[in-house]
């Protein structure tokens, strides 16, 4: 090994604390980058693999009932590659071991062959027997959640008739990677499941012989989806079409695509913060190193070492810790990636969850760390190279101090010397001090942003399961019911309050923009269900128009007062211009609300109801559930309590890990910055502090001078960190918000307390470490050395 | 005032060299029209009080600094307008430095400090041999902090001579040492000059050292005040101050 290399490693060892801090920050940045990229790649690859192997369709269409002969017609539309028709219906289920009714989505499959599109992956058991009309394959998450095995039975009310279904296998489909009940946003695996059943069985149960109500197709290479959708809409309008749509509107695909997009944003924002901190740390550590080693640099130059050799030597001080960080970060990231992918596996049901670790990631990590090293070392290298050897032999000229603001104001004399030293030191290098404060505040900011998602999800849960709803259950009817159904429900024993709403699938258009959207007709906004925005403010239901979610208004490009073209897609299929009466900034999904009576008028009928919100007597709960299980006309029950606990459980599992990772990394960041600041300060001033000790100042007094400055930095960094943290959270909320949900901006005092608590704990620990060195300062040795 | 004429080729020629430092708005003339020749194998002692310009002269001779005016010729090659790279090459090949404060790299052992030079030289002596030459064969694996001041200075000398320089420049080599150790270090310098024939320039404010030189140059206020030859070179052990 060359002597210069040996010097490099020995010096590195000597300053191991600071170098470890730099390496740790780089490790965190790379770990975040590698783990999140591999999760992104894994999700993309798993999705691609799943969609291809199980022939996931590209265009979807639901109709009321259309003759099977249309399948042939559709297949002749230019650009259509293959077409598949099915019968799909939602039913109430009686699941063994579950008191309350569950909802089952029955999806027809061919008796003798695999479905042409939207295939089913049999995880366990077998395909249905062509001759047995009661056999079903059930979705695996539902079976797992309910402890069901092939051979078990569930009861179902299909078209008003009770039927016992025999489970012969568990399966998964690319259509339900994210499996949620219609009308819900969060999976409730115990109470919603998909069941694949023979086409013949459903045809006879639903009187759908020679007909279908669900069509899906794939496109030929290069074909335009828009064109095909338009043709389908024209063809099936008379069959009660709800409008054809592409994968981008398919709920399950939408969730995964949004997730992948969000990961992409996080891959950019978070590592960028860690890397800028690493660059900053390297910069101050190396500048200090070059300044303490100026005589060594001079002697190397005197010996004939070229500038390039010296620059390379000092670049090594940056490359070693960042390189080590890149290596450790890649390993940690690869490991974290596998853990995170597994967590995503709980959310999303893939046939096979591939773990993809791309070698390019390693190369990018190495490149990033080299860039960070060079960027961090640049100023120090320039100083080392430009240092004239003759001058470097002489000690550095004493730093220039001028009377600062404090002195000019005449306040200086009122403070003890120790305080004046601290203040002058900060005043002398305002930029460096400001940068130190900024970097410390970055760690506070990351802590705030990391825990912001907790607060946001808390708010989400509070609004969606608390403020908005007073009902206990929502009973969903399998078809629009006459208003007389209200009397029937009200007569059930144990129903304390009841409220109904109507849902009409519609197409909303404004100018050239249009959107398929269900119109929800509510009797009022003061009943069981309320309208509440992200700030928990109640919003009234306006009369004489539609109330749109802010996001939906944005998509359609409308503002209150504009007139929307509304085309109902069912029943009368009437079309009318309706004014936008207002907007509401809601957390979940996209919605369009109207007064129930106005929606009835728009539909031009005597009224219809799609669901009932009920508040029920807890004592009668079980009996009511039993009644619902067998009630004809009910396709599903949603229970607020169950939804909330499933949401909380899901979030707890997924967010705890990622927030824990981010919090840990932010602590590393805070420690690295504060500790390094104190160490540099000690190195710069050990001579001065020793002189003060020789003059009779106590250990406590010199510790006060050294650590007082760092403490001041931390105090300033807290409010600035809060501000940056809030800004970062706004960015995160924008990046993570989609049509599916918006993260509300909300911060609990606990978040701020935690962030400042972490910072001060870290500051105290690093202060103690540095103080130990200060106490053992060898006065004679320090004073004897040439600065 | 001029020394006896020497027939051998000059290793280094300084021709009317001046150096002016700008310190804020004041300009300080560190050297004024200095002309000197150094001949092969000579041991020259350069005397001068603090501020006389001797360190500036050493820096210019060593290629660490460039003159404001005048010329510097090394073996006939003009170094006055040499680039930074050419000066680096000059120091690398031809110059050995010994500093008052030794300037050893504290994280390297004695041997490694010497190797720092042998690794970049064209025809160096083995680092171990250089250390043997200064009497430190048994201390070569010690770090600077484990060596006395005299030992550190001898490592610095070993480091300077290991590359077999044509010119050995010693800046106050005894300045930080006690009397006995100082003499020991001078003995090493004298032996190197005698045994290896290296042209040696010792800069000092201590006029008692002048006795060991072939030639003594005195600088005063940036000018050559005296340039004389000793009729007889004394051994450092015979010196006293």
Written description of the protein model:
- Among the domains of chain A are: 1-54 and 252-397, no CATH class; 88-200, no CATH class; 468-642, no CATH class.
- Chain A is 53% helix and 19% strand.
- In chain A, helix 14 packs antiparallel against helix 19 (640-694).
- With 241 residues, chain B is α/β, with parallel strands linked by helices.
- Chain B has a single domain, classed as 3-Layer(aba) Sandwich (Rossmann fold), CATH 3.40.50.300.
- Chain B has helices spanning 54-61, 84-94, 110-118, 127-133, 149-161, 179-196; strands spanning 10-23, 26-39, 43-48, 69-74, 77-78, 95-98, 167-171, 199-204, 215-220, 223-229.
- In chain B, the strands form two sheets. Chain B has a six-stranded mixed sheet, with helices on both faces.
- Chain B is globular and about 50 Å long.
- The model of chain B is unreliable at 1-5 (pLDDT under 50).
Approximately how much helix is present in the residues of chain B?
Answer: 25-40%
Overall structural class of chain B, as computed from helix and strand content, comes to alpha/beta
Q: Report strand order across the widest sheet of chain A.
A: 3-4-9-6-8-7
Rg of chain B, please? 17 Å
What percent of residues of chain B are in strands?
25-35%
Compressed to H and E, one letter per element, the order of chain B equals EEEHEEHEHHHEHEEE
Helix content of chain A: 40-55%
Q: How many distinct beta strands of chain A?
A: 20
Largest interface, Cβ cutoff 8 Å = A-B, 26 and 28 residues
Quick description:
Chain A is of the alpha+beta class. Helices cover 53% and strands 19% of the residues of chain A.
């Amino acid at each position: 090994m060359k002597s210069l290399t040996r010097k490099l490693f020995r010096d590195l060892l000597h300053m191991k604390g600071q170098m470890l801090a730099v390496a740790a920050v780089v490790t965190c940045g790379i770990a975040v980058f590698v783990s999140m990229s591999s999760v992104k790649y894994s999700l993309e690859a798993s999705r691609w693999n799943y969609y291809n192997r199980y022939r996931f369709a590209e265009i979807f269409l639901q109709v009321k009932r259309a003759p099977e002969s249309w399948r042939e017609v559709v297949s002749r539309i230019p650009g259509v590659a293959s077409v598949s028709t099915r019968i799909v219906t939602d039913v109430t289920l009686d699941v063994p071991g579950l008191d309350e009714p569950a909802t089952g989505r029955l999806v027809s499959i061919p008796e003798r062959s695999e479905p042409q599109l939207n295939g089913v992956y049999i995880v366990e058991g077998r395909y249905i027997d062509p001759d047995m009309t009661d056999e079903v394959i059930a979705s695996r998450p539902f079976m797992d959640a309910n402890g069901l095995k092939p051979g078990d039975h569930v009861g179902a009310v299909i078209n008003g008739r009770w039927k016992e279904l025999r489970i012969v296998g568990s399966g998964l489909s690319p259509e339900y990677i994210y499996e949620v009940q219609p009308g819900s946003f969060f999976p409730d695996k115990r109470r919603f499941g998909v069941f694949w059943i023979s086409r013949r069985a459903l045809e006879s149960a639903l009187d759908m012989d020679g007909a279908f109500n669900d069509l899906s197709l794939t496109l030929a290479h290069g074909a335009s989806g828009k064109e095909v959708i338009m043709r389908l809409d024209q063809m099936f309008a008379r069959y009660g079409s709800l409008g054809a749509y592409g994968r981008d509107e398919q709920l399950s695909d939408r969730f995964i695509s949004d997730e992948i997009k969000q990961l992409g944003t996080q891959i950019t924002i978070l590592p960028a913060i860690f890397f800028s901190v690493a660059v900053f740390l390297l910069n101050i550590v190396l500048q200090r190193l070059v300044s303490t080693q100026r005589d060594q640099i001079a002697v190397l130059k005197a010996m004939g070492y070229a500038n390039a050799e010296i620059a390379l030597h000092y670049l090594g001080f940056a490359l070693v810790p960042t390189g080590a960080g890149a290596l450790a970060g890649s390993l940690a990231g690869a490991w974290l990636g596998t853990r995170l992918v597994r967590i995503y596996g709980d959310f999303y049901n893939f046939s096979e969850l591939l773990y993809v670790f791309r070698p390019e990631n390693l190369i990018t990590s190495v490149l990033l760390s080299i860039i960070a090293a060079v960027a961090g070392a640049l100023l120090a290298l320039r100083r080392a190279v430009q240092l004239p050897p003759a001058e470097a032999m002489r000690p550095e000229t004493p730093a220039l101090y001028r009377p600062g603001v404090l002195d000019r104001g005449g306040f200086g004399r009122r403070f003890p010397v120790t305080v004046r030293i601290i203040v002058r030191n900060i005043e002398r290098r305002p930029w460096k001090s400001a940068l130190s404060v900024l970097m410390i505040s970055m760690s506070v900011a990351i802590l705030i942003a990391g825990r912001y998602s907790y607060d946001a999800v808390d708010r989400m849960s509070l609004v969606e399961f608390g403020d908005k709803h007073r009902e206990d259950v929502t009973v969903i009817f399998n078809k629009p019911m006459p208003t007389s159904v209200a009397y029937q429900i009200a007569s059930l024993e144990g129903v304390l309050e009841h409220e109904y709403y109507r849902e009409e699938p519609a197409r909303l258009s404004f100018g050239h923009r249009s959107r398929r959207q269900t119109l929800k007709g509510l009797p009022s906004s003061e009943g069981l269900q309320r309208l509440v925005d992200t700030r928990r403010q109640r919003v009234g239901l306006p009369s004489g128009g539609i109330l749109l979610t802010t996001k939906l208004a944005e998509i359609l490009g409308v503002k209150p007062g504009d007139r929307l073209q509304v085309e109902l897609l069912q029943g009368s299929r009437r079309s009318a211009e309706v004014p936008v009466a207002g907007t509401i900034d809601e957390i979940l999904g996209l919605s369009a609300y109207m007064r129930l009576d106005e929606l009835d008028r728009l539909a031009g009928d005597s009224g219809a109801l799609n669901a009932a919100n009920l508040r029920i007597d807890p004592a009668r709960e079980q009996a009511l559930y039993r009644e619902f299980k067998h009630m004809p006309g009910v396709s599903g029950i949603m229970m607020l309590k169950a939804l909330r606990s499933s949401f909380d459980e899901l979030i707890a599992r997924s967010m705890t890990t990622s927030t824990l990772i981010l919090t840990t990394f932010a602590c590393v960041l805070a420690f690295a910055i504060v500790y390094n600041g104190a160490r540099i300060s000690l190195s710069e001033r050990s001579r001065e502090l020793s002189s003060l000790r020789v003059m009779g100042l106590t250990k406590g007094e010199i510790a006060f001078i050294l650590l007082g400055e760092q403490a001041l930095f931390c105090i300033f960094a807290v409010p600035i960190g809060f501000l940056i943290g809030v800004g970062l959270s706004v960015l995160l909320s924008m990046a993570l918000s989609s049509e599916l949900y918006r993260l509300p901006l909300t911060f609990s005092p606990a978040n701020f307390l935690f962030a400042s608590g972490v910072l001060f704990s870290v500051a105290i620990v690093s202060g103690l470490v540095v103080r130990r060195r200060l106490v053992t300062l060898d006065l004679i040795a320090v004073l004897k050395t040439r600065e | 005032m001029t020394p006896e004429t020497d027939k051998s080729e000059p290793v280094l020629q300084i021709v009317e060299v001046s150096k002016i430092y700008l310190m804020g708005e004041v300009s300080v003339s560190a050297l004024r029209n200095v002309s000197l020749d150094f001949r092969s194998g000579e041991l020259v002692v350069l005397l001068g009080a603090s501020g006389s310009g001797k360190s500036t002269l050493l820096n210019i001779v060593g290629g660490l600094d460039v003159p404001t005016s005048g010329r510097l010729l090394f073996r006939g090659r003009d170094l006055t307008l040499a680039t930074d790279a050419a000066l680096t090459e000059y120091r690398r090949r031809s110059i050995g430095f010994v500093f008052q404060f030794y300037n050893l790299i504290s994280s390297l052992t004695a041997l490694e400090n010497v190797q720092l030079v042998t690794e970049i030289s064209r025809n160096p002596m083995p680092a171990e041999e250089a250390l043997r030459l200064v009497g430190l064969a048994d201390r070569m694996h010690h770090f600077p902090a484990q060596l006395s001041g005299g030992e550190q200075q001898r490592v610095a000398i070993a480091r300077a001579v290991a590359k077999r320089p044509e010119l050995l420049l010693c800046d106050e080599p005894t300045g930080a040492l006690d009397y006995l150790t100082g003499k020991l270090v001078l003995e090493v310098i004298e032996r190197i000059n005698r045994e290896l024939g290296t042209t040696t320039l010792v800069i000092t404010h201590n006029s008692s050292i002048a006795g060991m030189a072939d030639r003594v140059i005195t600088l005063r206020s940036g000018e050559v005040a005296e340039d004389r030859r000793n009729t007889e070179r004394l051994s450092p052990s015979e010196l006293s101050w």
